[in-house]
Recover the amino acids of this structure.
């Protein structure tokens, strides 16, 4: 398990448009984390939430900066500016470039279903 503690920063809101809003965090000080999609968890206000996290540069949407993006399952609220600890529990796949946004959205739905039901 890898723990990452960082402040939630504003992103391009692409995850929200795809139906998976994310808390975005820079990975300064965490250079050696393997890129990919992870089963994760986040504690917010004392409640532990299951989450789906991506470590990478988001090649399917023209990203360049290495980020941690975390979709917190069953949570809604404003996390901007808050300092969170995300625990990466298990890597489920490598980061990859999808040929279309539709393909990306379909894979995110599969990842979400897998994480939610495990």
């Amino acid at each position: 398990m890898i723990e990452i503690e960082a402040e939630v920063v504003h992103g391009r809101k692409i995850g929200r448009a795809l139906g998976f809003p994310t808390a975005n965090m820079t990975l300064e000080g965490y250079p050696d984390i393997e890129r990919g999609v992870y089963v994760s968890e986040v504690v917010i206000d004392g409640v532990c939430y299951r989450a789906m996290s991506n470590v990478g540069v988001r090649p399917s949407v023209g990203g360049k900066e290495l980020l941690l993006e975390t979709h917190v399952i069953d949570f809604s609220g404003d996390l901007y500016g808050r300092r969170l600890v995300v625990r990466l529990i298990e890597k489920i796949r490598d980061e990859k470039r999808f040929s279309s946004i539709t393909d990306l959205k379909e894979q995110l739905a599969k990842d979400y279903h897998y994480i939610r039901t495990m």
Q: What stands out?
A: Residues 15 and 69 are 9 Å apart (CA to CA). The first helix runs from residue 14 to 17. The beta strands are 2-9, 23-26, 36-44, 47-56, 67-72, 83-93.
